[in-house]
Amino acid sequence: MTLLRDTPSTALSFCLASTFHLEFPVPLRRLAFTFLLLSVPCLQAQEAKPTLHEALMATRADRAGEPGVTAAFRRLAETYGTPLYIYDQPHIQGQVQALQTAFASRFPKLRILYAIKANTNPVVIKLLKAKGLGAEVVSRGEIETALRVGYTGPEIMFTSSSKNPGEIRRAIELGAVLNVDSLDELGQIQIEARQQKKQARISFRVNPGVDPHTIHQINTGIAESKFGLHLQDGLAFKAYEKAKGMPEIRIEGAHCHIGSQITEADGYVLTARKMLGLVKDLKEKLGIKLSFLDLGGGLGIPYEDGQTVMSPDDLAKALEPVWKEGVAAAGYEPTLWLEPGRFFVGGSGFLLTRVNTVKVTPLKTFVNVDAGFNTLMRPAMYKAYHRVRVIGKTKDPKLVDIAGDVCETGDILAEARTLPMAEAGDLVVILDAGAYGFSMASEYNARPMPAEVLVDGNAVRVIRRRGTYPELFRNTESAVPAKR
Ligand code: LLP
Fold first, then answer.
1. Any residues with CB less than 8 A from the CB of 188 and at least 6 apart, and which?
2. What is the architecture, at CATH level 2, of domain 152-340?
3. Atom of ligand 1 nearest to the CA of 159
4. Of the four listed, 188, 193, 398, 466, which is most buried by Cβ atoms within 10 Å?
């Protein structure tokens, strides 16, 4: 417990002992007793002082008005500035544990990767790597990021529907799995592998034609989406048939990813059924046995107070019978791969901002903060909902918009929220900003990139320093042309 954390506890123990020590003179015992009584409020205050991790949890639990929580955020803002991304390390580790526990007991042949696009901070990726996760990447930059944190080429899965020749070359050189999105790409991989005198390891990204009912822009497995080779009309099957005849290609698996922020298991179940049907067909009709079947990422997290979403356990439970039936029909069991991003890091992230001004207009009240869609793109881009907490305030609730500092009407971080009234200088925290927050941030409006810190207990580690004004010009004053 936090009691006595920073207290001179030896003095208090002495007083306690003296009070009840019958051989001590009465005046001394009275004095010790008085001192003990006087220290009670002070002890209570000590007890209320939360660690930074506890302050983050309290904020999530809508207790951001408490003095200890306020003090913790003020300390962070004064030391590291705002806007500031704060990640809670135990949360990330707990999420990995939850997924591993739910799946490992039901799927003995299991491999979990981290879709690093969700949060590409190398220290965050290292946390996930330390838990045994592989890396799913979508660009040369993400390949280099994965290598930098210690992944080897063969541990990397490279998915993109539009890979450039340099990316294909690099992935083959490294021995990464290329997750192939079209026949055109397959042909290019074949030529490059021939040149490198290597066999390229591949899977096909399959479009299963399943709608998981999520936000339109992140719904990827429906027939009209740009991703993957469609199961429909046998396109995916034909791609495998073609690849089988290519000596430069080593077929290793099949992949699909039906979307992001999925909150119900049904879409996964239907997808798994369809994909296992393909697994069976490939073996029976083409003699192809896959080493893995990747069902993608997409596991949703609760963004709203009281929102319930499918848990890893719900998903594992729902998939288990379909998987068992499918592998029995196929006559063998490929390893089940999963590749979530958001699920691991989303809830760990808190975006700390400071109020610049408050403005009352005839229609609305705007609380203008020092972050915008350049810092957190999700609300503007997807109309995504993020909970907001005003730090240190509990009174005077008002209907307000939390507005960003970008010069665009659409730069509203939270619309029509009833929140304790904030004033200039107050701190406002936006929750669940750990996934697709910093990784989608930009320097738009010439605002330097925010800093990122990682919290563990009461320890804070700066894992990315704040951008600087000179950095805004870092690539414009060089005479050397950039090459891919
Ligand atoms: N695998 C592939 C092939 C993906 O395209 C993605 C995400 C993932 C895995 C990880 O999905 P997750 O588990 O994080 O849902 N910017 C949007 C999300 C875009 C997701 C893109 N692909 C957002 O802020 O909601």
1. 165, 168
2. Alpha-Beta Barrel (3.20)
3. 3
4. 193
